[in-house]
Amino acid sequence: MSYRPFIREAIQLSSHKPRRVIIWQRNELRWDDVDKNSGERNWYKLVRSCRARNVRAACVPVGANEEVYIIYTSDIGWVVGHSYILYGPLLAGAATVLYEGKPVGTPDSSAFWRIVQEYNVSTLFTAPTALRAIKRDDSENTQLRQIGERGGLRSLRAIFLAGERSEPSIIMMYQELVGRYAAPGALVVDNWWSSESGSPITGISLAPHTSHDKKHSYMKDSRLPPVKPGSAGKAMPGFDVRCVDDDGVEVKPGKMGNIVLGIPLAPTGFITLWNDEERFYKSYLKRFDGKWIDTGDAGIVDAEGYISIMSRSDDLINTAGHRLSTGTPHPSLWPRCQVDWQYFSLTEKTTGSIEQAITSHSSIAEACVVGIPDSLKGQLPFAFITLSMPDHPLSAIPNAQLVDEIQQQVRKQIGGIATLGGIIQGKGMIPKTRSGKTLRRVLRELVENAVHGEYTKDVQYPATIEDPAVIDVAREKVAQYFQERGDTHKAIEARAKL
């Protein structure tokens, strides 16, 4: 993605223009000449010039043993990128490791853990997608364990996750691993926010922890709320988070509804859209007559104030009058694991979902559920799964035993109403945005088209998609599935308007 046009426009609109802009040209993009008159400079030419003149840039030394030493893997152009890679750490006086690349295949799945070891990273911030990719390539966590057993992860105090919902199985697995190999009391924390909020809306903060002079720790004197797998934590300061029905009336604790924000937002939040206040009103305020900010997410707020974000409101599936969400929680009791830390709660009832139930199977690395048309029930849940193995089967149709085990997991944790209408397996077929959000709507459209035999029909996808080639992989798997199973598939009887 070429960022220079956006940077140039931002500088043009800025009242305080920078004297210099360093351009890092990428081989994947067309090489345009830099505009020296406007202060642009080519990074490679600067480096070569400095080497030729034996000039070294003066760096500000930051010790690797600093208490705040952070690695973030978000794209620098997204809100988490510039908030937590650039000005956030600088304001806090923190050193940041900017990692560019995938968590697997460089050359293996140890990339994150090698960086933590080499740079004594204390906080890792990434997307659940990255951890799923690591799980898929290294289902036994061999790479992490090898580095952990050498003491290479002892600096790590927390793994923060954002960008999409983190299923409890991922939280629980990595919590047990960091509990064994990372710093004492290390946590795996899911948090929820958006570009519009400018900072986390919900989460579990490790502060108050260290004073500004870094001499006093408050961890022992201040009990933090425990982490609940499946929940994105509690409302952060400045945000009034509510759960309401379609009329804007608050629902009872534990009941699914629309997640909204009270007005005004925290100081970090948007108050309008640039040169488009009408769009801001229609997008965020109109639905609830200006009383609430509509986040577009569905979720639950429980009696203790824990907030679970399940999915986008428009991803809800209506099955025989029951509103299910692809990532929507229903009450379920998650199994205990060998973890009993002070700030991590696994013994209470948390929340489950269709995707969550599927990924609780040890063979599943990732799952995505969409609604498909059904003439009797309106819609049925339909799953796309990726297995936890490097040599993934080529067939789009899972073996009968795995299908039966997945269906049992779903019936046990959600109920018979959520029985899947079909399962497609494949590697590299679940499309995501560059910030890690799953594009369920794309898969849903592919399945709807396949119901009518329209396998090659174009589907719409956003410009923010990470890799458009993934859609072709998904299309091939969907076609293979419906060509073999379409004549007996329940959804083939009629097409329901979604």
Automatic annotation (TrEMBL):
InterPro entries: AMP-bd_C, AMP-bd_C_sf, AMP-dep_synth/lig_dom, ANL_N_sf. Residues 354-437 form the AMP-binding enzyme C-terminal domain. GO terms for molecular function: propionate-CoA ligase activity. Residues 58-262 form the AMP-dependent synthetase/ligase domain. Transmembrane segments: none annotated. This is AMP-dependent synthetase/ligase domain-containing protein. It comes from Xylaria arbuscula.
